[in-house]
Amino acid sequence: MDKTVNHKAWFLVLPVLILVAFSAVIPLMTVVNYSVQDTFGQNEFFWAGLEWFEEMLASDRMWDALGRQLMFSGIILLIEVPLGIFVALNMPKSGFWASFCLVVMSLPLLIPWNVVGTIWQIFGRVDIGLLGYTLDLIGVDYNYTQDTFAAWVTIIVMDVWHWTSLVALLAYAGLKSIPDAYYQAAKIDQASRWKVFRFIELPKMMGVLMIAVLLRFMDSFMIYTEPFVVTGGGPGNATTLLSIDLVKMALGQFDLGPAAAFSIMYFLVILLISWVFYTVMTNLDKKGM
Amino acid sequence: MAKITLDNLAHSYLPNPKSEDDFALKELNHVWEDGAAYALLGSSGCGKTTLLNIISGLLQPSRGRILFDDVDVTHAPTAQRSIAQVFQFPVVYDTMSVRDNLAFPLRNRGRDEKYVAERVQEIARMIGMEDMLNRKARGLTADAKQKISLGRGMVRKDVNALLFDEPLTVIDPHMKWELRTQLKKLHHDFGHTMIYVTHDQTEALTFADKVVVMYEGRVVQIGTPDELFERPEHTFVGYFIGSPGMNVIPAKVEGRTAYIDGSSVELARGYGPLDGKVEIGVRPEFARLSQSDGLPVKVRRVEDVGRHKIIRANFFGHDINIIAGEDDPVSADMNRVTFDAKHVNVYANDWRVEGEAA
Amino acid sequence: MTLELKGVSKIVEGQVHIHPTDLTLENGTMNVLLGPTSSGKTSIMRLMAGLDVPTAGQVIWHGEDVTGMRVQDRKVAMVYQQFINYPSMSVYDNIASPMRLLGVDKAEIDRRVREAAELMQLAPMLDRKPLELSGGQQQRCALARALVKNAGLVLLDEPLANLDYKLREELRVEIPKIFEESGSIFVYATTEPEEALLLGGNTATLWEGRVTQFGPTPAVYRQPVDATTARVFSDPPMNFLQISKTGSKIMFGDGQSARAVGKLAELSDGRYTAGFRPNHLEIGKHTDDAMEFKTTLSVTELTGSETFIHLDHHGERWVGVIHGVNDLTIDAPLSVWLDPRHVYVFSETGDLVAPAAYAVAA
């Protein structure tokens, strides 16, 4: 359906455009500005061209951080999406318990990120944390400040705890929109539980799952606060994800030029991966998966 | 195929129904004969969907039993009842091909692939979708999807009954004709027991051998289309079947005469004294406008609806409808109406009274 | 006081939705747009309302060109197939809302709301919310809201399609009454020929984005200008048969023929298509001129007062509507009769060349 053309409508969009310009475009341009210049302090800048980009591309530091980042995002997606679907499938569909579940599930989503980090940081401590202390007591060698594996497990479990609800809630919304007739027809056709999932629930959830995966991917790829609070990127560089590394570089070492180049590439990587995701999934959707 | 017996069946959505009003489906005894086509007809909220859900096993009745060929299935789950159902909105497995959709119920029952392939081919021919077997079900038109639902129901040979829940709701009027005819043909050729729920009298009457008319949770009449038309047992049936419905006029009945405001209408049968609200019912088809005979009537409007004319008139303060043929003249000086005595029914408290032949 | 479409057309992304259309709707008339789904009924309504701007042509409202004018600035009311009301407002507020937007004073709003509610039999429900009402009442509420606006143009897009059969029948009787009192231009879209006939007024038949005929409803029904119009305006569908004319005789096949009288006499010899409505087929010879056709009966359907018969006539599918309940054997031969005065004759391109004699007489 096409719409009536009315150029006055552009005036209504103007405030948003101004807002976006101040909040996104202008800061981004500042970053671009930094990325092609060098400074020795005193607000003096020299043209550096693509030097910083070349340097960043050649450094192991960024590639390692990218590798860790991809591993982190991959693992949490592999856990959160199936787990979220599983939770959604097992949630009550109506009545008091449905509302109860919804409220409980949204709780982790309401907690500020740094608080989530703090909670887990304390929770996991061997001396005073409930989790760390208990594990230590039953003889599991667990110390996230020293052991790489323990550190990874901690930040992954934390992320799963924090964000699975989001996937579950989206999946639940998708499930709720399936008319009863489909389930009745499946009963009549004697479809197994697995087939009901595979041929009715999954296809009907596809749309919202796509959004869930995209959201979780982008969010996890940019994660900063929580691992920073828990591990501070350690032990060593073991949990130094992209954004943590970026902050270290920009604020810790004050290497503005490389950090700016880094963040632009970071931004482009997110854009690229999101685009690939989106394209692949819409194509799958068109083909009926 | 099976005979389906409803034995003292009743259902209430309340946990402790007290009065009759609490029942969505009031007590019902009925036998659905093997291989017959039935329609459940009524307006929304009359209990027809409740009854259908009890038959398909989606709902357990509060009282009574339901038997398939003398086997009590009252508490058997849907999957064990071997029934098939076509829903109001087409239910197909979008991601499967038409072929896989049709094969689905057979494969779920572990039938071997050779049998499945043969059977799918057979069904596809019956529903006229042979050349679409490899298409994805997604993106097909509503009527094609409904045909797939129907085919999925018929693909099993052991199916006890085919249930239809207002299956033509989303179908275009000109396609309705085609689907209805096809269904009728399939019933004639294969003799499945079919139960068809609808609010549309044309669909019900044209489809069914016997129509079950429901009103406020109660079955008010079970009959062939012509029985429902000629001898509606309840004024609701008279109103609901036929367009426009039956004219119902308050009257006093004595013997073989009905009196409306003192004027007399001759009846074909004799009636004893009647209590309560007494009315006579005459279908518009059996009323005739005339220049000289009958009782006075004031014509308000004549509607030419093609096949016939509908005359909207006032008769002793009551609105009545009269149907005249396409070629019948209707002129301004026609201000009297006669009723065909054979087709005048008498009602006491909304239920038809069987008169005595003279 | 008219609404005029002058050469109006609508093309969206290279696809023609509406072919150039001229249509003049007079004030105080009921106009039915009749056609199957996606024949362009809604598209034409949107053009009339100003929701869409035509690709070409002009929309003239009371002599003034309103082609580019926004819908908000026109006096238009619209009712859709879905029951569209404000769910959080009471029925009273729903009906009052368009007048409040126009700044009508309070007493006048109250008077008009109560008047409309009375007319639509909603008076006892004014304090309720739309979702507490039945489907028929919800749609009455939407209709009432459209009426109080005193819009010069009221567009009804299949307003009864989502209602129970019997409710539809009742509202169908009410709508012409309401319309008679309002004096606006009513446009009513429907897919059902029977609905068009019951509403009366004028009918425009639509087929694939083209208005094939426009005129008084019974006239369009009885004297369709071409086979397409006849097909659109016939339920059950019109039956067709290839015929030929030689001299003073029209050959109908099966050895049946009729004398070429009236308009038929003027036709040149050659092949034509005969069309006749299902209700004109009979299963007995009732008139001297009636021609016999041997067919095979494939399906019968009873409605109580009538019998629908589905026939196979040398591979062509015919439908007949017969009075009364008839006990006929399926899959057996059946003879049907047709009086030549019920036959429309179309050229091979589908234009009407001779109307049915009975229709001319009527």
UniProtKB/TrEMBL annotation, chain A:
Record flagged with keyword Membrane: yes
UniProt-listed Pfam families: BPD_transp_1
Highest rank taxon of the organism: Bacteria
Residues that span the membrane, as ranges: 12-36, 70-89, 96-123, 149-175, 196-218, 259-280
Membrane topology: Multi-pass membrane protein
Localization: Cell membrane; Membrane
The entry's keywords: Membrane, Transmembrane, Transmembrane helix, Transport
Span of domain ABC transmembrane type-1: 66-277
Principal subcellular localization: membrane
Family statement: Belongs to the binding-protein-dependent transport system permease family.
PANTHER family hit by this protein: GLUCOSE IMPORT SYSTEM PERMEASE PROTEIN GLCT (PTHR43759:SF1), TREHALOSE TRANSPORT SYSTEM PERMEASE PROTEIN SUGA (PTHR43759)
Name of the protein described by the UniProt record: Sugar ABC transporter permease
UniProtKB/TrEMBL annotation, chain B:
Residue span(s) of domain ABC transporter: 4-241
Lineage: superkingdom: Bacteria
GO-annotated molecular function: ATP binding
Keywords: ATP-binding, Cell membrane, Membrane, Nucleotide-binding, Transport
PROSITE patterns: ABC_TRANSPORTER_2
InterPro entries: AAA+_ATPase (IPR003593), ABC_transporter-like_ATP-bd (IPR003439), ABC_transpr_FbpC (IPR015853), ABC_transpr_MalK/UgpC-like (IPR047641), OB_MalK-like (IPR040582)
Pfam families given in the database record: ABC_tran, OB_MalK
Protein name: ABC transporter ATP-binding protein
Organism: Maritimibacter dapengensis
Automatic annotation (TrEMBL), chain C:
GO molecular function terms listed in the Swiss-Prot or TrEMBL record: ATP binding
Matches recorded under InterPro entries: AAA+_ATPase, ABC_transporter-like_ATP-bd, ABC_transpr_FbpC, ABC_transpr_MalK/UgpC-like, Transp-assoc_OB_typ2
Domain ABC transporter stretches: 3-233
Keywords of the record: ATP-binding, Cell membrane, Membrane, Nucleotide-binding, Transport
PANTHER family tied to this protein: MALTODEXTRIN IMPORT ATP-BINDING PROTEIN MSMX, OSMOPROTECTIVE COMPOUNDS UPTAKE ATP-BINDING PROTEIN GGTA
Name of the protein in question: ABC transporter ATP-binding protein
Organism: Maritimibacter dapengensis
